[in-house]
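Fig. S4 source data, part A: sequence.
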Amino acid sequence: MNIPARAGIALLGAGMLAVSLTACGSANDADADAAPATTTSAEPVTEAVAETEAPEETEAPEETTTLPTVPGYDVGEFPAVPLFQLPDLSLLDTASADGFTLDLRDDVAPIPGVTVSPAHCDEAGTVSAGNGSAYLYGDGSGTFTGPDGASVNYGDGSGTFTLNGVTVTNYGDGTGVYEDGTVTITNYGDGSGVYSDADIIVNIYGDGSGNYTAGATTIENYGDGAGNFTDGTVTIVNYGDGSGNYSDDEITITNYGDGTGLVNGQAVELDPIARVPELGVFPTLDALQPIESCGTLITFEDGVLFDFDKSDVRADAAETLGVVAEALETYDVTEAVVSGHTDSIGDDDYNQTLSEARAASVVAALEGAGVTAQLTAEGYGESQPVAANEIDGADNPAGRQLNRRVDIFIPTFS
């Protein structure tokens, strides 16, 4: 799923593809670093030096080098191998997805780390986080883990649904096929299955392993805690034993899994890398039917806009927000809600404050870029995850990176 480094895990949303990002918990204020404390002390008393004694030479202090970081991460940290995500089928169905969503996706979605998808709401009209998404991860037992960490069994009941005038049949034994000339979905009934369209191919083998391809982006999950990701620029490797590496055009990170590592050849202390969660089984076709849309959701991975633990929009994000601002004006959007979200690391108060500050920063940047729509900023902290922060008690960095995000919700309008 949008992934990231900022690699097309925008696909799945994400990003797919979808990038894993780390914790943003800290006791610092969300908007600014604390000013450094200053102290005063008396001048040290020194004994007179004999005239015949040459003054002792002292070595100049070594210059400290600021190590480069992956956007949105602390020194030496990097995104997890992304989760797999099947596309929201509402995007394939003009009856259930607002045509505006499809148009906006063409204008905005090519930006790495930014995805455009149909928004799905509850009966009260509130956006339902994660609704309509199928992240293919779990424990391999025939269930998927939902956004709240609970296991969901999609069942194998028979039934049909219609998409773009094509009737999809689920045979009731876990098998089924959908094909319309562009999209093919096949469930083999043994936990394995395939999704393919003009842009994406997803293979789930039913034993915890699988692969995902979307253009230059490839994700491989070996089902044993190891996996890798590449998009032609960014490469992420997780060996499943706490070690792994990351590289792009500017930075190379090596994590040895023993508490040590290198950033561009310089030694640093690094925590071991969490294992890649094994994939779940392929969902039954009735679980993949499209859900009616209540608007459009633009999602930004936090690394696209913010530095680690910060709420000021980075200068290099101005172009990205400028593209979004131009699209909102082009389509005469009159109102939108900007919401900030975090993962669950850190205390609740800090996560709430950070999410509010980030949402407010995006609103200010969009208004500064010329957006005339009525924009509302809201912060939800960790309360609306779209993926599990943990699976079976183990940390899930790929899920956390999906949860650290800023969403722009545009209600359906005519």
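Fig. S4 source data, part B ends here. The first strand starts at residue 85 and ends at 86.
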